[in-house]
Write a structure and sequence with these properties.
Distance between the termini: 65 Å
InterPro entries: HRDC-like_sf, HRDC_dom, HRDC_dom_sf, NERD
Protein name: HRDC domain-containing protein
Strand content: 15-25%
GO molecular function: nucleic acid binding; nucleotide binding
Helix content: 40-55%
Number of domains: 2
Strand order of the largest sheet: 1-2-3-4-8-10
Oligomer: single chain
Largest sheet: 6 strands, mixed
């Protein structure tokens, strides 16, 4: 940036941003935890205490991860505005943000995860959580891509800010940090774009610094950053807490749920057997046929034709042509 441009910006701007400014910090007032604790202490016999306790535990784990992230941001010395726990809506879209970070060069949407176990990302970008005992894997499951979740949040924020003429050329970036220091993240086979936007908590500040250097020619004035940040805060739309989901289901509903679960269990085993057999015939590892995340989509979406099968992440023309009909027969019989 030219010296003249810097002087003009300085004259135009009456606010300064030399380090981290925390405009919203809700770490000590989690509405979700507060409401779940009320239900936990309730004597209402219609409440599902196991579900409540499970969600309360997960909420507290998540909040502890966000506290670790806030510590890193506060001590980063980077000029930025930090918004924690934000909710916005536009049209039919709603998103909750762990962190929105506004810098002179970009806006960063940060999703925070704190899993038990290690994270492995495949060459197709599928995420798995792996728990080991020594060198032996004792548990492995596919998980919904947190990066895909962050990208969805980014797109909603982009739509929201543009609808109110708050950004023009400003780039909105999405990323994920894993806040459990003992997590191992295996990105050996991960696509390049996944590797670049995922980090452990000690890599968060270096990631922000890298993006600042990449976009060094951008320079949004502090006054505009504060204007955008305050607009976001003043136009939040928080969804009210619903107790309904924590009520014990009636007996007929339990019967239906049980049948669905049993049906899913049977289908899952059939799909795993099919994958194992096909992998053995082709000399591949099982996840090359389809990943656990793809298998989970088969179970939830139950595709009934090749067009629907093509929409499942991890399936493409080649796989559908090779064994799509066999898959559909398994899923729908």
């Amino acid at each position: 940036m030219s010296l003249l441009r810097k002087m003009v910006n300085k004259l135009m701007d009456h606010e300064d941003l030399k380090g981290p400014v925390i405009l919203q910090d809700r770490l000590e007032e989690s509405n979700l935890i507060r409401e779940l604790e009320k239900l936990h202490n309730s004597t209402n016999p219609e409440l599902d205490k196991l579900l409540i306790d499970d969600h309360l535990k997960l909420a507290k784990i998540g909040l502890s991860g966000e506290k670790n992230v806030m510590f890193e941001l506060k001590h980063s010395f980077l000029p930025m505005i930090v918004l924690h726990d934000v909710e916005i809506s536009i049209e039919d879209y709603h998103a909750q943000y762990d962190f929105i970070i506004l810098t002179h060069q970009f806006i960063f949407v940060l999703e925070v995860k704190k899993f038990i176990g290690n994270i492995v990302v495949s060459e197709s970008g599928d995420f798995s959580r792996v728990v080991k005992k020594g060198t032996r894997t004792i548990f492995r499951e596919g998980v919904y891509s947190p990066l895909r979740q962050a990208k969805r949040q980014r797109d909603i924020l982009n739509k929201f800010l543009r609808a109110h003429n708050l950004i023009n050329k400003t780039e909105i970036i999405s990323g994920v940090t894993f806040a459990n220091e003992r997590n191992e993240i295996d990105l050996t086979r991960a696509p390049k774009e996944v590797k670049s936007m995922i980090c452990k908590i000690d890599g968060l500040v270096p990631l922000l610094e890298k993006e600042q250097k990449r976009l060094i020619d951008r320079n949004v004035l502090p006054a505009n950053l504060f204007k955008t940040a305050n607009f976001i805060l003043n136009n939040q739309t928080r969804k009210p807490f619903s107790q309904q989901r924590y009520l014990v289901k009636t007996e007929p509903q339990n019967t239906v749920v049980e049948k669905i679960v049993v049906s899913n269990d049977l289908l899952e085993q059939k799909l795993r057997d099919f994958r194992k057999k096909l992998a053995s015939e082709k000399g591949y590892k099982a996840f090359y046929i389809f990943s656990d995340a793809t298998l989970n989509e088969f179970l939830t979406k139950r595709p009934s034709n090749t067009e629907e099968l093509m929409k499942i992440k991890g399936m493409g023309n080649q796989k559908v042509n090779e064994f799509g009909n066999e898959l559909l027969a398994l899923i729908n019989n």
